[in-house]
Specification:
CATH architecture: Beta Barrel
Oligomer: single chain
Radius of gyration: 26 Å
Number of domains: 1
Largest sheet: 14 strands, antiparallel, barrel
Distance between the termini: 72 Å
Structural class: mainly beta
């Protein structure tokens, strides 16, 4: 007999001795942060401008004007601007708001026309913390600085499209998103080591830098799989009593990457650029299927619960210019005023699909643990597009103890309307931010920032995100079998047709120490 196939899934000093001890302690703290608490640095697939408090405050900029250890992440060529020994600790609190009201599903039972309505869906997971920490040291050399840190990419790593009950995400049987996603958790962190060096030229200064990154990713997700017997023609009925729940967990992987940077300065003007290459992820973990109650007598399971997730992450090219003027009344080594314009290009078009390969097949204890249904490699089309972001930011030293910041951004979409999904929200974006730095002492700064990111609403009419009909003989990734009613189109109903809206709040706080 045929049984459901799991399918359509998807898948961060006064004297020399005192100086040395302080540096050793700071490196120890950073190492503990990197090695001991990686679960605190998380990300989603798409970055939300931007990591670190100052970058949030300044419209998501960072490639041109950095003068602290976060240059490791943005542009290591700016590390020589981080004088002395500096320690930076920041945390973003990201609140992703997304609402989806799916259109009614109309289908026929015999000659009777049936209409199924769905509960509106929103993200119930709540605000999500994204910390980062770094330290830099110039060794007492004017033109050389090294740094060490860990960065949680600016993103959102927890989603729940059901309800939260005792800290657990519970399925909404009538929810509009259950075939796209019930819940997910995505952790990502970049452990980073880098250096920058500055050359004196006959006119101006040229800086170069490089950072080596060890990237770590860990995934878990859960969604509903349609397990009903297909009718000859669409649309198909969606019956929660005939759905299985698929969960992939402990999907983890390490990858090596890095950042190369350049910067040139002349009389307060600066141009700069940095590049981080794409990352190919191949994460291995475990799979579990909770089969529907009407198949309980078959005692179904998996012959091998191992599973592999393959996908890509875009590379990023950052570039821009900036200008500094005057002298800060409380920080003589800082300007009174500065402004910068940044552009960021990311090649998300390399993400054509998410692929998951189960190692085992479906077995039945009722048939003596016999394998009765194979599980094929699955691809969920994404067809992402490259994105471009334009960002503007600036700061003004208002008082000896106070600096004010502000900025804004515009960003193109990686997701076309047809592929709008609750897994990642990467639509067109516009944002505005403000922030402040309190100079508590000559060695201590406290920073606060807020950014609002909005997206235009979407009304999806020709959706290309489908639930899977596992018993159908129309198979991916090309869906060109004779069993496919419309060649090139998966079986099942479009899941994303309806009204969508989304916006994001980012609050950030940080502290920096300079010795």
């Amino acid at each position: 007999m045929d049984l459901p196939t799991v399918s359509q899934t998807f898948f961060a000093p006064s004297d020399h001795l005192h100086r040395q001890l302080s540096i050793g302690g700071m490196l120890l703290v950073v190492s503990w942060w990197v090695l001991g608490t990686p679960e605190r640095a998380r990300a989603a697939g798409f970055e939300i401008p931007e990591s670190t408090t100052l970058s949030v405050a300044r419209g998501g900029t960072g490639v041109v004007m950095k003068r602290d250890p976060s240059a490791l992440y943005f542009n290591p060529a700016l590390l020589p601007r981080a004088n002395g020994v500096q320690v930076l600790a920041d945390a973003n609190l990201v609140d992703l708001n997304i609402d989806f009201q799916r259109d009614d599903l109309v289908y026929f039972q015999g000659d009777r026309r049936q209409t199924e309505s769905f509960d509106p869906t929103s993200n119930a997971a709540g605000p999500f913390p994204v910390p980062s920490m770094a330290v830099s040291w110039d060794f007492g050399i004017d033109d050389l600085t090294v740094g060490l840190g860990i960065f949680g990419p600016p993103a959102y790593g927890e989603r729940c499209y059901g309800r939260i009950d005792n800290g657990e995400c519970q399925l909404d049987r009538d929810g509009a998103a259950r075939h796209m996603l019930i819940e997910s958790s995505l952790l990502q962190a970049y452990g980073t080591l880098g250096a920058g060096y500055r050359f004196e030229l006959p006119t101006g200064q040229l800086s170069v830098g490089a950072s080596a990154m060890l990237a770590y990713q860990r995934n878990r997700f859960r969604l509903a799989i349609n397990a009903e017997v297909p009718t000859p023609n669409p649309p198909w009925q969606e019956n929660p009593d005939e759905e299985a729940i698929f969960e992939a967990r402990e999907l983890s992987s390490f990858n090596a990457t890095g950042v190369l940077g350049l910067a040139y300065e002349l009389d307060g003007f600066r141009i700069a650029a940095s590049y981080r290459p794409p990352i190919s992820w191949e994460s291995e973990g475990r799979a579990e299927v909770d089969f529907p109650d009407n198949l309980e007598d078959l005692e179904l399971g998996l012959s091998d619960d191992r599973v592999t997730l393959r996908t890509n992450q875009a590379g990023s090219l950052r570039f821009g210019w900036g200008y500094e003027h005057g002298q800060h009344p409380g920080r003589p080594d800082h300007p009174r005023f500065d402004v910068t314009v940044n552009g960021i290009w990311e090649n998300w078009s390399i993400v054509e699909s998410f692929e998951i390969e189960p190692a085992g097949d479906i077995t039945s204890e009722a048939f003596g643990s016999q394998e009765i249904q194979d599980l094929r490699t699955i691809q969920q089309p994404k067809n992402f597009r490259d994105t471009f972001s334009l960002r503007v930011g600036g700061s003004w030293g208002a008082l000896e103890w106070l600096t004010l910041h502000g900025g804004g951004l515009l960003e193109t979409a990686a997701q076309s309307e047809a592929y709008t999904n609750v897994d990642f929200v990467s639509w067109e974006r516009y944002g505005a931010s403000l922030g402040t730095s309190f100079h508590i002492d000559k060695w201590l700064d406290l920073k606060l920032a807020y950014m609002f990111i909005g997206s235009p609403s979407r009304d999806v009419e020709n959706g290309r995100v489908y639930n899977q009909i596992p018993l159908s003989q129309c198979r991916g990734p090309d869906y060109q079998d004779d069993a496919c009613q419309e060649p090139g189109t998966p079986p099942g109903n479009p899941q994303n047709e309806g009204e969508w809206s989304s916006h994001i709040h980012v609050a950030s706080a940080g502290v920096s120490l300079t010795f």
